[in-house]
Amino acid sequence: MAEQSKKWVLMVTAQAPTNIAVIKYWGKRDENLILAINDSISVTLDPAHLCTTTTVAVSPSFNQDRMWLNRKEISLAGGRYQNCLREIRARARDVEDEKKGIKITKKDWQNLHVHIDSYNNFPTAAGLASSAAGFACLVFSLAKLMNVQEDNGRLSAIARQGSGSACRSLFGGFVKWVMGKEENGSDSVAVPLVDEKHWDELVIIIAVVSSRQKETSSTSGMRETVETSALIEHRAKVVVPKRIIQMEEAIQNRDFPTFAQLTCSDSNQFHAVCMDTSPPIFYMNDTSHRVIGCVEKWNRSEGTPQVAYTFDAGPNAVLIARNRKAATLMLQRLLFHFPPNSDTDLDSYVIGDKSILKDAGIQDINDVEALPPPPEIKDKVPAQKYKGEISYFICTRPGRGPVLLTDESQALLNPETGLPK
Amino acid sequence: MAEQSKKWVLMVTAQAPTNIAVIKYWGKRDENLILAINDSISVTLDPAHLCTTTTVAVSPSFNQDRMWLNRKEISLAGGRYQNCLREIRARARDVEDEKKGIKITKKDWQNLHVHIDSYNNFPTAAGLASSAAGFACLVFSLAKLMNVQEDNGRLSAIARQGSGSACRSLFGGFVKWVMGKEENGSDSVAVPLVDEKHWDELVIIIAVVSSRQKETSSTSGMRETVETSALIEHRAKVVVPKRIIQMEEAIQNRDFPTFAQLTCSDSNQFHAVCMDTSPPIFYMNDTSHRVIGCVEKWNRSEGTPQVAYTFDAGPNAVLIARNRKAATLMLQRLLFHFPPNSDTDLDSYVIGDKSILKDAGIQDINDVEALPPPPEIKDKVPAQKYKGEISYFICTRPGRGPVLLTDESQALLNPETGLPK
């Protein structure tokens, strides 16, 4: 390397999806390694609508590791970033780019610095877990840059040390995070259950709830639950192991009624143990409760579940519809009960896969206002409306795992300087 | 009896308190006898502010059992009323009133009809458990009328068959409902722990939350929890038995920090198992959460608990302050965050023991508006206010058990006709 010009910059750009747990992860048995007290299962969301794009670059001209997130420089000093960087560097291998005349040996990586630029294609601070996609993308792209030969399962154990749920974003479709037994966390990894094509009828609608409340971070929240809840141990040791088995079977068989029942129950139980924490943690608010009420009422009236709901550490609802038809009918119900504020246009109120909106016969705000009350509430006159309680909806579906973006124009860093474009 | 005039009416009037559980009752092992799946402990509230007054009358001129509740006639056909009436009648004894020339033998009671008139001195439909005071008063007054010789403990087993928590209203102070083991429920009775003088520093403030939501009744709610929650059994069999022992000790020792910690944790766990029910039950709303946040923040800033909170099957907060000073400071905080609507006068906004208001230096609505933000939130500018979210506050204290009212002017029924005055 010594003889090479200091000017070269080697870059890799990757894209990683976010995921939403259907059997929840809540509680660590090791805070530093991020080892969970129970297995969890998630569905990966289509990166077309929710993903992180990360460019990582290496150059002898960089004199320190630096990172930008959503166009602002952030510190890499935190233990979580340091753990990921150290683990990836420890597995780095020789890299040769003959065209550019670059040769980096395994040993060189210990002394070379990296630049990391990361960007979420969805609004930040919306309470949509961006750290899962972020750390998955960071680890995946660094591994590619440094020619790490380990598979995504092994990489998931590294991403896990950035953010627990990030390990599940190393795969598409449905993914299980096996809690593992080893003290060093080597067997606490993500395992793909089925890919995104296995159950491609599913449609996912995310209701981003307007909220001004400051929420308890999931890191401190789950620590407090483990320390103070009298129910969490029973959940982790007795309830979840059974649900994991049932959920895997439901996913294999595309058994929506069982899937929905388990998904809703496990979300509710996660929020129950949060409430059983001292002091109690409330992530759902009245709007979240109203969304649940709307889904439960419709499911009951249909005789079999049409939609499952799940909520992470915040008030946003993630609704999983059994198929497009159910998603269409769900969206009509949601728009009826939660119309946008008068200053919001429909185009920014329903984002992502807008074809669901078209299927629902809704083209503009007048169509929203003309929606009839859902038949299951028709006795209740007037039906209640909660204008402005939801900021926007995102329509999406199960999606693929991380990918390399080979088109250099998609890189976030300048290929000459290695600085943000 | 045959030779007597048909005109006589014999009456008894009694008053019974309501109670609030500090270790919660949630879940039955027998729906008809109303047998609980765990012990519970409550504090009886001062009947001066919250109680039921009931007049029961018997006369050979009555041709059916009739009841009026809050001046409206209601049906006695329900199993719960019938169970109480049958059990009391089975224990009726000879009654003789020489002055009036009345003589009723034990056997006569099976053929005599009663009139029952019951009245709550607090607003109905406010979500304040009126059935506890109501059934306690019904059973207590009927027992006196029919010269039942059993003590209040035995009577509590009858009141329990009207409404589970009613058994705890047969005593003042702190009361334990022992779940019992017998299949017939004979050992499922209330036991007085300490009377109302034992810990008379305590002050209780009830925040009645404005709510338009229809709530799940506690009868169907607890049935659904027992049938569907994966956590309720662990709560009932493992968690509550330990808490009962700790709570009894805390009450005996007037150990407020332990009392507060147990009270808050058990309220939260009750709401947690409600949320773990399928479909989930939400009794607390955003206002309830905000009251908890306000109490938790203040307690933390003081280093030791000043106030405990507990919520029953509804959004209303019951706050138990360690002493008058703490109650005064709590009320100032509550009025700061939850001022009344502009059309509400202070006199109807804080009811019950208004001397707390005087201690807080608040004489009119201007004093409420002039309240400074509590010091523990002083960094947060502007401090949040939630005008109109609370309907009113009731200031009260621990109180006595049921009593007979001997002053005939307090009877609700006309002594000549046996009909409501």
Automatic annotation (TrEMBL), chains A, B:
Q: Which Pfam families match?
A: MDD_C, MVD-like_N
Q: Boundaries of each Diphosphomevalonate decarboxylase-like N-terminal domain copy?
A: 16-190
Cellular component terms per the entry's GO annotation: cytosol; peroxisome
Give its localization: Peroxisome
Family note:
Belongs to the diphosphomevalonate decarboxylase family.
Please describe what this protein does.
Performs the first committed step in the biosynthesis of isoprene-containing compounds such as sterols and terpenoids.
Q: What is this protein called?
A: Diphosphomevalonate decarboxylase
Source species = Withania somnifera
